[in-house]
Design a protein that fits this description.
Layout lengths: L2 H17 L35 H8 L7 H8 L11 H11 L11 H10 L2 H14 L4 H5 L5 H38 L3 E6 L2 E6 L8 E4 L8 E7 L4 E3 L1 H4 L5 E2 L15 E2 L4 E4 L2 E7 L5 H6 L11 H30 L11 H15 L3 H19 L2 E3 L3 H6 L4 E4 L11 E7 L2 E2 L7 H13 L4 E2 L12 E2 L2 H13 L2 H6 L1 E7 L7 E8 L9 E7 L1 H4 L3 E5 L5 E3 L2 H16 L3 E9 L8 H10 L4 E10 L6 H10 L3 E5 L4 H10 L8 E2 L1 H6 L15 H9 L12 H7 L2 E5 H4 L4 H7 L4 E5 L3 H13 L4 E5 L5 H6 L2 E5 L4 H6 L2 E3 L5 H41 L8 H11 L1 H7 L24 H31 L3 H4 L11 E2 L5 E2 L1 H18 L11 H18 L1 H7 L12 H22 L4 H5 L2
Parallel strand pairs: 11-23, 11-27, 19-22, 23-26, 24-25, 25-26, 27-28, 28-29
Antiparallel strand pairs: 1-2, 1-3, 3-9, 4-7, 4-9, 5-6, 5-8, 10-29, 12-13, 12-22, 14-15, 16-17, 17-18, 18-21, 19-20, 21-22, 30-31
């Protein structure tokens, strides 16, 4: 193998290793973490590079199909030339059956590791540790002391194992269920290939591609298989970064440029992206035979990245588990070095090991990972039913924080059903039927030739409904040209010599054609061009008059043309100029020479006419924008259209409501007092540390209050040509406008806009469907691609709107806010009841010597059974009435868990629940045994005497004392059992009823009474917790009232959560 080939393969392998978990997705993923569509990209992760000979590497070294003449290429792969119409369907079907589909085989599933992850990962590992420690108290420690092992300890071990089995089985079911959902989603977003078969262009699933197929490479599409380029435009370029890591696009040609198959520029590789130009190529390898497939076979395993939300939960769990273990170890040390030195120690080693396990189990909210996983998956399913397909589940939560949406216009706010409705000649508006036949024929010829769209069906279908492939603007021009007369005869009368397709930078399309015979209007070689009038007008010197004569493009005509353009633009129409110029073009010169000569020829043009294209807004767009306003989310239009067109559409859909729209000059002339101010808040320590670590140069800033921005209610329109001259202070002001329009923007400028908003603390969502949108989609906090857009856009985005409906994004934002709210509710429920109220019984028993109010077995019942059902029910909570009327949260301030929340759940709710549960426990002792609070404290080892003698003189026989202890254990357990009130969430009372049944089962089942040290209790102890619950509810409502009364900025508000 050559040195360059070896370097290429190694670089490709390393690149895929780095990207596999982060940017590219697998068809076999951990579904609880990601729901990801398939986009014809490499999906495996390369772990190691095999040593010694490798047949795939040797095969790559011997590939030479790119170096032979194109006719021989076609013979080798059994292809049919473009002129002869490509492969027929029968041949293609036979090859597909013989060679298999054009897909990369997924990595082999490692079921053993997956099984171990289900039953030994996460909290299950802690549970195994707890089971092992408690099992030691059953065997062999009791036998070593010569004591009889307690069946209670064995029962606790069995109970822990049942919980582990349940959680592992749940995770396995969740994996299977979500994999099924992802399979359906992947089917919705399967990639397509544009091929020539049986003499016509058609779209087929990329997996049905076979060797010998002729594929069309178009701007924004993925290369569906390894292929050799047959013909291409001069500006064809491909992004090979998925293989090489180099972000610079590689120009393409139909000639061999390197002896190495992997280095030659006449080869297109599966998974790479067409970023410019167009061409046709013949498929030479599919599926695992491609370079992608060969590299993928080097993969040993795949890796799934944890989402940001999961990492935050993981940190929270580690934090809580660390406190639990620290607390348990501390208690053990206090027992060893202090309590054991007292005359009557209460606990032996076996008892303290039980207590330590009780602390560990009680402190960990076992239901949280399950609830979070189910929450995200359920919301992802709900969004999928609304045609919002999530590629990464963390996007769901991020959606809830979106503060500004930068949206494209065409296909997003508008229906993308364009119609060329108006025409003008020399600035005179008129129908093509009202001009001379020569003027009509010339306009018809230019529109037919300078058009990148084609009909995909025959003439039996009416022109407005006839299917066509290509850009929406080109399709509108094609249909307009067809309505003037058949397009195909015009195209057949010319031979294409050279072409530069439309791109967002040039804002024009150009083609050079040679008339096959002595054409009446365009004899010889002619350059045809169409594009934005403001770009082409400076290059026009003549114009076609309505009577068919060519006149000078004098000032009067120029004024009429500009006025017509501005009038149409102010009506929200897209204006296109059509022009031509006779040229002498040498087709035998090199490619660079052709391109240079073509670019130099774009001058001294003849304006044939202008067309106004109408693209009506979607019916639901205006209501969606109004909903965004209600949710305090700003919507900024970022489009490549003319400024007047953009502003007109923005007014029509309610993005702009202000009477006056500022320009950059107007904005600079305003005083600072006319603008809201950014909060004078220092960045958090984490933000400042992040700035130093990642060497960011953009200042980290807390975003301005949305209420102040809305109160100012200003609008501004900025052109792309002005963006380069904007200073930091200009951007500070622009980002404070409520209504924004950015027109005539390039991909780099869209990216700049996103970065500037993000630098000022905004959480940015970007919508788009074109390849030019992909940089901004990738840079945004949430990139939103349209399902009918380019594959490049869909891959760069975080989620895909499969129905191309902008209003679906609002459903996603609502789901994101609901997701965050419900996970917080789960945390708030689990910690006070399932953690804090179970820790204090152990601490009080150890440090003040009272009997243990709640034993380890019942800790497990609460944490792993009775608490899990209500926490699962909380994920089905309906949205609050204010969910979509409150401002979006600020992630830097409103994190999932913070100091205020811990203070609320531990020191406020948790302490009240703990106090109430202990109060009922002491009440039972006093009412049933006549033992007061002062009798129970500081008893320590005296509780092991028979009879037990309390300081007040009350004596209780040991057997009776044990029964009272079991009953009191049930009282404390029942006090923590969930109750419910009126609710619209019917899952909540059902979950509470299940938990109640579990509690009754453990309290009143005789066999379980002796096994888990519980006992039957009087019926009033099932109702006594209700006043306590009302007290906790009342105190929390008083807290809310105080927060509303004193405000969030008061001392009370700062202390409250």
């Amino acid at each position: 193998m050559s040195k360059s080939q070896d370097h290429f393969l190694l670089a490709s392998t390393e690149r895929l290793r780095a990207k596999a978990g982060a940017e590219f997705t697998s068809t076999n993923l951990e579904p609880a973490t990601e729901v990801i569509p398939v986009f014809r990209t490499i999906t495996q992760e390369v772990q190691t590079r095999p040593q010694g000979p490798n047949p795939d590497v040797d095969d790559i070294r011997n590939i030479d199909i790119h170096a032979v003449p194109l006719t021989e290429v076609l013979i080798r792969v059994g292809a049919v030339s473009i002129e002869d119409g490509g492969l027929d369907e029968v041949t293609a079907a036979e090859r597909l059956k013989k060679n298999g589909p054009n897909i990369l085989k997924p990595p082999t599933e490692r079921y053993i590791l997956k099984f171990l992850g289900f039953y030994f990962g996460g909290f299950c590992l802690l549970m195994w540790c707890a089971a092992a420690i408690i099992f030691l108290t059953y065997y062999p420690l009791p036998q070593m002391d010569g004591t009889i092992p307690s069946p209670y300890n064995l029962a606790v071990v069995i109970m822990i194992l049942i919980v582990i089995l349940f959680q592992g089985t749940f995770y396995a079911w969740q994996d299977w269920s979500s994999s099924s959902v992802m399979g359906k989603i992947n089917g919705l977003l399967a990639s397509e290939a544009h091929v020539i078969r049986g003499g016509r262009a058609c779209d087929i699933p990329a997996e049905n591609l076979v060797v010998g197929d002729i594929v069309e490479l178009k701007l924004g599409s993925k290369v569906p298989a390894d292929c050799v380029i047959l013909e291409c435009s001069s500006d064809l370029a491909m992004d090979r970064s998925i293989l090489t890591g180099e972000s610079v696009a590689v120009s393409a040609t139909n000639r061999t440029t390197d002896a190495s198959f992997m280095e030659s520029k006449n080869v297109g590789f599966m998974g790479t992206t067409v970023v410019n130009g167009a061409g046709k190529a013949v498929v030479v390898a599919t599926g695992d035979s491609t370079i992608m497939g060969r590299i993928a076979t080097l993969s040993g395993k795949k890796r799934t990245e944890r989402t940001l939300l999961q990492k935050e939960i993981d940190k929270f769990i580690v934090f809580v588990a660390t406190i639990a273990i620290t607390c348990g170890v501390t208690c053990m040390l206090v027992w060893k070095y202090y309590l054991m030195t007292t005359p009557n120690p209460q606990y032996t080693l076996l008892g303290m090991l039980n207590n330590m396990c009780a602390i560990i189990v009680a402190f960990v909210p076992e239901g949280l990972p399950v609830a979070m996983s189910v929450t995200l998956t359920l919301i992802a399913r709900r969004m999928a039913k609304q045609f919002v397909l999530v590629k990464n589940l963390t996007t769901i939560e991020t959606l809830g924080s979106v503060s500004i949406i930068c949206t494209d216009k065409t296909g997003t706010l508008t229906s993308n059903k364009m119609t060329l409705r108006d025409t003008s000649f020399a600035g005179i508006v008129g129908n093509v039927e009202s001009v001379s036949s020569k003027a009509k024929n010339m306009f018809h010829a230019v529109a037919a030739q300078c058009c990148g769209a084609d009909f995909t069906d025959d003439n039996s279908v009416s022109i407005p409904d006839r299917p066509a492939s290509g850009d929406a603007t080109d399709i509108a021009v094609l249909r307009a040209a067809e309505s003037m007369g058949p397009v195909e005869p015009v195209r057949r009368s010319f031979k294409k010599l050279f072409e530069i397709p439309f791109n967002s930078r040039n804002k024009w399309m150009m083609t050079i054609q040679q008339a096959s015979s002595n054409h009446d209007c365009f004899p010889g070689s002619t350059l045809f061009i169409k594009g934005a009038p403001d770009v082409l007008l400076s290059k026009i010197t003549k114009a076609l008059a309505p009577d068919g004569t060519i006149v000078a493009f004098e000032a009067g005509i120029r004024t009429r043309v500009v006025q017509t353009q501005e009038q149409w633009s102010s009506e929200g129409k897209r204006v296109i100029a059509f022009a031509y110029r006779p040229v002498e073009f040498n087709t035998t010169s090199g490619k660079l020479s052709q391109e240079e000569r073509a670019m130099q020829s774009i001058s001294d043009l003849v304006l044939v006419g202008m067309g106004a294209i109408v693209d009506p807004p979607r019916p639901e767009t205006r209501a969606t924008i109004d909903t965004c306003r209600t949710a305090h989310i700003r919507v900024a239009m970022v489009t490549g259209d003319f400024k007047l067109t953009a502003v007109a559409i923005a007014r029509e859909v309610n993005i702009i409501t202000a009477n006056v729209v500022d320009s950059i000059t107007t904005m600079r002339n305003r005083s600072n007092s006319e603008f809201p101010s950014y909060p004078d808040t220092k960045p958090s320590l984490l933000s400042r540390l992040s700035k130093k670590v990642f060497k960011t140069t953009t200042p980290i800033q807390v975003r301005a209050e949305i209420s102040e921005i809305e109160e100012s209610n200003r609008a501004i329109a900025v052109s792309g040509s002005e963006i380069a001259d904007l200073s930091e202070s200009d951007w500070d002001r622009i980002c404070l406008y409520r209504e924004l329009v950015f027109a005539r923007t390039s991909p780099e400028q869209k990216l700049k806009i996103v970065d500037e908003f993000k630098a000022r603390g905004e959480v940015v969502a970007v919508t788009g469907d074109g390849v030019n949108d992909s940089p901004a989609l990738k840079a945004a906090n949430v990139g939103v691609a349209m399902g009918g857009g380019s594959e490049v856009a869909m891959e760069a985005a975080s989620l895909v709107l499969i129905d191309n409906n902008f209003s679906s994004l609002l459903a996603g934002i609502e789901s994101g806010r609901l997701c965050f709210d419900n996970i917080k509710k789960v945390i708030m429920y689990l910690i006070p009841c399932g953690t804090w109220s179970e820790l204090w019984p152990v601490l009080l028993s150890i440090f003040i010597g009272i009997p243990l109010p709640l034993n380890t077995a019942m800790d497990l019942v609460i944490c792993c059974i009775t608490d899990v059902f209500p926490s699962m029910a909380l994920i089905y909570e309906s949205p609050e009435s204010t969910l979509m009327t409150r401002p979006p949260r600020v992630p830097t301030k409103d994190s999932l868990v913070n100091g205020k929340m811990f203070a609320h759940v531990y020191l406020f709710i948790g302490l009240m629940q703990t106090f109430c549960a202990h109060a009922l426990w002491f009440t039972y002792w006093y009412r049933s045994a006549g033992v007061s609070f002062s009798d129970l404290v500081f008893m320590y080892g005296k509780l092991a005497a028979d009879p037990v003698t309390f300081p007040s003189g009350v004596q209780v026989p040991a057997a009776e004392y044990t029964q009272h202890l079991y009953n009191a254990n049930s009282v404390y357990f029942v006090a923590l059992n969930p109750f419910w009130g009126p609710t619209r969430n019917l899952y909540l009372p059902a979950a509470g009823l299940i938990s109640l049944c579990v509690a009754i089962f453990f309290v009143y089942t005789p066999g379980f009474n002796s096994l888990f040290q519980t006992g039957p209790i009087p019926v009033e102890y099932w109702f006594l917790p209700l006043p306590c619950a009302m007290f906790v509810l009342l105190m929390d409502e008083l807290r809310k009232m105080g927060y509303r009364s004193f405000g969030p900025h008061s001392l009370f508000g700062k202390l409250c959560w």
